Amino acid sequence: MLSRFDRAFVWANQFVVGALLLIMAVLVFANVALRYVAGISLPWVEEVTRYMMIWVSWLAVGLAMREGAHIAIDNLQDALPEVWARLLRLVVFASIVAFFAAVAWYGWQYASFAWRQQSAVLRLSLGAVYMAIPIGSLLMLGHVFLTAHKLLATRNSGEAQAQAAEFSVL
């Protein structure tokens, strides 16, 4: 059951990130084409795609973590005996959870504070833009908890991390 939920969770996260990237690409391409073909530029495209990039960044951070695509230094872990290495991974896991829980909380506070502020061109609520921070942090926490067994149980080799980082670029 959890495996099925995990796959659906990852698929939904990837779908939203991919859809946002596709929409951004279409909007930027159309704006450039309009600029060179018709001599007009849509001023709202730059603003919308900037905010979409913020959302993509925050929504994709958990996916990158799952693939091992974030920078990791594992020299200390590799130098420790297995018991101490496992304890170190537990401390790192707890630190990640605490950090993203705090970011979600303060991100919510900031988005609530900025809710009445408006963007320059489209008059969008900046709070809606900043909601990417708590939502992305909560998604990251979801990814962390769903992969906790993998994060805590085994050491990741440098080769495995390099392959994951390489795969995430493709």
Automatic annotation (TrEMBL):
A GO cellular-component term linked to this record: plasma membrane
Chief location category: membrane
Protein name, per record: TRAP transporter small permease protein
Location in or out of the cell: Cell inner membrane
Keyword annotations: Cell inner membrane, Cell membrane, Membrane, Transmembrane, Transmembrane helix, Transport
Transmembrane segments: 12-36, 87-108, 128-146
Membrane topology: Multi-pass membrane protein
Biological-process GO terms, alphabetical: C4-dicarboxylate transport
GO molecular function list: transmembrane transporter activity
Superkingdom of this protein's organism: Bacteria
Xref: Pfam families: DctQ
Matches recorded under PANTHER family: 2,3-DIKETO-L-GULONATE TRAP TRANSPORTER SMALL PERMEASE PROTEIN YIAM
Every Tripartite ATP-independent periplasmic transporters DctQ component domain range: 24-145
UniProt organism field: Mycoplana azooxidifex
Subunit structure as annotated in this protein's UniProt entry: The complex comprises the extracytoplasmic solute receptor protein and the two transmembrane proteins.
Task of the protein: Part of the tripartite ATP-independent periplasmic (TRAP) transport system.
Family affiliation: Belongs to the TRAP transporter small permease family.
